[in-house]
Amino acid sequence: MAIAVYPGSFDPVTMGHIDILERTSQVFDKIVVAVVHNVTKEALFTLDERVDLIKKSIQHLPNVEVECFNGLLADFLRARDATVIIRGLRSITDFEYESHMSMMNKSLLPDIDTVFIMSNPCYIFISSSGIKEAALLGGDVSGLVPAAVEKGLQEKLQRYLFKTK
Ligand code: ADP
What we know:
The protein is an alpha/beta fold. The protein has a single domain, classed as Rossmann fold, CATH 3.40.50.620.
């Protein structure tokens, strides 16, 4: 059974991420989305909120599971019997960062390979940070994020506006 892990911050999950999952879930028997705490990025949604939003957005993908984890990705992969890491690529900038990460992971876990999936051209401009910025300024992000995320962003915006009144 070919099990893959798709790690990331997913703060929040976007249609770019969902598209990667829709395509890779046809290739692998099981995919585990690993929601990680990225120390270099300030999060809008808690880890539990991010997991919940992904779960609500992948109900049409029965072989995709979601978990959050803190620690070494290598340990997570070993515990799940996974042999592949999935990452998405949008640009040369993504490639530079991702190639270093995949080399690091290869040195930690020689049996694991990273599979890179090019972004669907219609989602190539989408990033979680861009979505947060647009949504919190009142921009319309429908079609760029799943419906559950759109709702979650609206709730965050309401709470933020309430606090600043
Ligand atoms: P991280 O903090 O690990 O970069 P992200 O949630 O930003 O977490 O991204 C997780 C993965 O999804 C990364 O491999 C990233 O390149 C990829 N990704 C992000 N947005 C898109 C998109 N619009 N299309 C394809 N892949 C994407």
